């Protein structure tokens, strides 16, 4: 810097201020030359604003206004390119076309892009050829080879370089790594590793049991590798089935129906494995399926006997004689040995033992006569076992129907009792009857009703068959009288429609009753029956009089018992409890223990005839409940006594007469204290016994002995 007024005599001093002054930039105050004290970095600060001024060296007076100037840092290529990420990851489908975009990588250069080529970047690929390429200006990575196969190589490592100076010599560079993974597409069909599978299964296997597994290999993964299995041909299509285990990608061959070694010993299946999801772009690579032959050998097993039928139904007539053949069951050994079979009946199904079976030929016979009305069907089970292998057993249900025969005559459907009015008109119907038959319908209706031949011309009643399994009874004459005859018995013959038909004679009871003019029932001579069946009027009056006299006696007895008040305490001499005895003399003092019962002293209140319980203090006066006292005119002595017992039991103020009361313990806190003479001479008591003066002449001696101290001292 130089001022126009600077003559070179050294009187002008140059001063520098602003950004970086004195630290980065310094000025020679004499010459005005500015120097940089350290290396500058444009990327850290591209320019500095400084202010310079010329002042008088002696007085520091400004000689001219300050001047502002800018120092710009000129860029040089000192920063290499840097990528945004150190590592990149990208995916691209396998078999993609050449030029398919994979990923774009981007680098930046801190140098000044406006000055020279320091920030002009060019991208190139260092590793990853010939599979991938990169666009020099954009950094886009693309596939360079067609039909890259994931199954051959799944992952590729590519190194991309970014170089400044337009890629020319001397430019700086930076690199990044890109990991590219080929994603799977369904470009491979499933393939069986072998052309034939050999399997075996026992003929005793149950349907649903697994026979074996097949697996077609598909190098694809995920849903592109899913395989479904099916049976498309073979003589075992009806006997076997195949399902897909999607966890293991295996085809599971299972038994569909029961096998029989003796019928067919081997089967052949043609199994197909096909992809579930097919990519149309690769359909030309197909077909995406494969087939294999599965041969299954049936193994012989020791099987139980087999009945020719799954169940049997036989019929036998009821009442058939013992030993009648009902039917025959047959079973055989399905094994090649064809062992002999023995038969037996499961007795849990024939508890009454109606049947027996021939163990050799399976003939079932009756043991006793059967009654259809008791049991129409018999359901039994028959066992078949091999003679030499008792553990091989088979079971079959056998239903035996008992065929009905006409062995039950018809009877009245109910216990009929008819009523006919005295004023009934001729040919008037008064009851309709029906019948039932225990036999089957083939041997039951139609029922035929009739009167016995000997009373076909009954003068009182007639019968009309309604031909619908019912019959009506009618009055033949008029003028019935209860006084002459009040009960009629009419026999009726009922025949069924069985072969041969059966009949029975049933008796209909008909009562003669009084009715009003409209035919409504009033009475059926009940009075007559009572008088005829009972006693005479005089006898009845005598019985009633005796009953009344007995009642009066009982009432008098109860009344007397109520009036006689029983004392609460019994004073009989034979009573074992301690009682209060009234004496005419006072006794002879403490030394006299024979004159009276010492128990009197233990309960002074006993002299008045009242002995409250000392062990339970009554808290209230007991009032008997009115409902417990019998009525004065009651004649039930037992109720009277029980009531009195209940009152005594529930009375808390009454002594328990059914227990021995002990009064030897006086308790604590008594005003009188102890009356024992054993402590009288040795114990100095402060208790006041003056109240003994009020207890009467019988306690005069005690009052003198246990009087007040003043009196005792005066006497001394």
Q: Would you write up a description of this structure?
A:
The protein has 716 residues and is mostly beta strands. Among the domains are: 12-72, Sandwich (Immunoglobulin-like); 82-183, Sandwich (Immunoglobulin-like); 196-299, Immunoglobulin-like, CATH 2.60.40; 306-403, Immunoglobulin-like (Sandwich); 411-523, Cadherins (Immunoglobulin-like, Sandwich), CATH 2.60.40.60. 9% of the residues lie in helices and 32% in strands. It has six helices and 39 strands. The strands form twelve sheets. Strands 32, 34, 37, 38 and 39 form a five-stranded mixed β-sheet that branches. A four-stranded mixed β-sheet has the order 7-14-13-10, with no helix packed on it. The longest helix is centred in the C-terminal third of the chain and has 27 residues, at 537-563. It is found in: Cell membrane. Its main location: membrane.
Explain the layout of strands and helices.
Blueprint: E1 12-18, E2 25-27, E3 34-36, E4 47-56, E5 67-72, E6 82-83, E7 87-93, E8 101-104, E9 107-108, E10 122-127, E11 132-134, E12 140-143, E13 155-163, E14 173-183, E15 196-202, E16 210-214, E17 227-234, E18 240-245, E19 250-255, E20 266-275, E21 289-299, E22 306-307, E23 312-317, E24 325-328, E25 331-332, E26 341-345, E27 355-357, E28 363-366, E29 377-386, E30 393-403, E31 411-412, E32 417-421, E33 429-436, E34 448-450, E35 461-465, E36 470-475, E37 487-495, E38 503-515, E39 521-523, H1 526-533, H2 537-563, H3 599-602, H4 637-650, H5 700-705, H6 709-715
Parallel strand pairs: 7-14, 15-21, 23-30, 32-38
Antiparallel strand pairs: 1-4, 2-3, 4-5, 6-9, 8-12, 10-13, 11-12, 13-14, 16-19, 17-20, 18-19, 20-21, 22-25, 24-28, 26-29, 27-28, 29-30, 31-33, 33-36, 34-37, 35-36, 37-38, 38-39
Pfam families: CADH_Y-type_LIR, Cadherin
Transmembrane segments: 539-560
Subcellular location: Cell membrane
């Amino acid at each position: 810097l130089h001022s126009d007024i600077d003559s070179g005599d050294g009187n002008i001093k140059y001063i520098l201020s602003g950004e970086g002054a004195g630290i980065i930039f310094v000025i020679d105050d004499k010459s005005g030359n500015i120097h940089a004290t350290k290396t500058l970095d444009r990327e850290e600060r591209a320019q500095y604003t400084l202010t310079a001024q010329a002042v008088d060296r002696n007085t520091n007076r400004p000689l001219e206004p300050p001047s502002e100037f800018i120092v710009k840092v000129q860029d040089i290529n000192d920063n290499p390119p840097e990528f945004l990420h150190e590592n990149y990851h990208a995916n691209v489908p396998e078999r993609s076309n050449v030029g398919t975009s994979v990923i774009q990588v981007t680098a930046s250069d801190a140098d000044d892009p406006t000055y020279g080529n320091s920030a002009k970047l060019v991208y190139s690929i260092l590793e990853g050829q010939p599979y991938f390429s990169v666009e020099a200006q954009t950094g886009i990575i693309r596939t360079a080879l067609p039909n890259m196969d994931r199954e051959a190589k799944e992952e590729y490592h590519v190194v991309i370089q970014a170089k400044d100076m337009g890629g020319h010599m001397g430019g700086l560079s930076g690199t990044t790594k890109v990991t590219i993974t080929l994603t799977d597409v369904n470009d491979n069909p499933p393939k069986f590793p072998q052309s034939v599978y050999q399997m075996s299964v026992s003929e005793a296997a149950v349907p649903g049991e697994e026979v074996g597994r097949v697996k077609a290999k598909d190098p694809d993964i995920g849903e592109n590798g899913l395989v479904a299995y099916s049976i498309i041909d073979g003589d075992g299509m009806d006997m076997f089935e195949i399902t897909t285990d999607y966890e293991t990608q295996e085809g599971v061959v299972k038994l569909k129906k029961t096998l029989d070694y003796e019928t067919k010993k081997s089967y052949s299946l043609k199994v197909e494995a096909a992809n579930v999801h097919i990519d149309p772009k690769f359909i030309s690579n197909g077909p995406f399926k494969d087939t294999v032959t599965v041969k299954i050998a049936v193994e012989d097993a020791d099987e139980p006997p087999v009945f020719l039928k799954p169940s049997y139904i036989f019929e036998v007539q009821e009442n058939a004689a013992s030993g009648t053949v009902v039917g025959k069951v047959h079973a055989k050994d399905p094994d090649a040995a064809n062992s002999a079979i023995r038969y037996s009946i499961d007795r849990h199904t024939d508890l009454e033992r109606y049947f027996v079976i021939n163990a050799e030929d399976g003939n079932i016979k009756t043991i006793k006569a059967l009654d259809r009305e008791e049991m129409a069907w018999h359901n039994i089970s028959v066992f078949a076992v091999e003679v030499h292998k008792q553990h091989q057993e088979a079971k079959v249900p056998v239903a035996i129907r008992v065929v009905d025969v006409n062995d039950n005559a018809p009877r009245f459907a109910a216990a009929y009792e008819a009523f006919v009015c005295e004023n009934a008109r001729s040919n008037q119907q008064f009851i309709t009857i029906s019948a039932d038959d225990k036999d089957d319908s083939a041997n039951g209706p139609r029922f035929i009703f009739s009167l016995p031949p000997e009373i076909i011309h009954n003068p009182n009643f007639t019968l009309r068959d309604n031909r619908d399994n019912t019959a009506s009874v009618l009055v033949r004459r008029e003028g019935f009288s209860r006084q002459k005859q009040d009960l009629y018995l009419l026999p009726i013959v009922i025949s069924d429609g069985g072969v041969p038909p059966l009949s029975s004679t049933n008796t209909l009871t008909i009562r003669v009753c009084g009715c009003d003019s409209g035919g409504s029932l009033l009475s059926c001579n009940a009075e007559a029956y009572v008088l005829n069946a009972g006693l005479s009027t005089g006898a009845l009056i005598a019985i009633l009089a005796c009953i009344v006299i007995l009642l009066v006696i009982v009432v008098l007895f109860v009344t007397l018992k109520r009036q006689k008040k029983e004392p609460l305490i019994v004073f009989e001499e034979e009573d074992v409890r301690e009682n209060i005895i009234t004496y005419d003399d006072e006794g002879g003092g403490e030394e006299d223990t024979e004159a009276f019962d010492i128990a009197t002293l233990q309960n002074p209140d006993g002299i008045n005839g009242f002995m409250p319980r000392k062990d339970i203090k009554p808290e209230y006066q007991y009032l008997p409940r009115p409902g417990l006292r019998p009525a004065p005119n009651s004649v039930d002595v037992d109720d009277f006594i029980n009531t009195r017992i209940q009152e005594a039991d529930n009375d808390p103020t009454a002594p328990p007469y059914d227990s021995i009361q002990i009064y030897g313990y006086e308790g604590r806190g008594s005003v009188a204290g102890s009356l024992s003479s054993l402590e009288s001479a040795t114990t100095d008591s402060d208790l006041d016994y003056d109240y003994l003066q009020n207890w009467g002449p019988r306690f005069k001696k005690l009052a003198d002995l246990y009087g007040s101290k003043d009196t005792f001292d005066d006497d001394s």
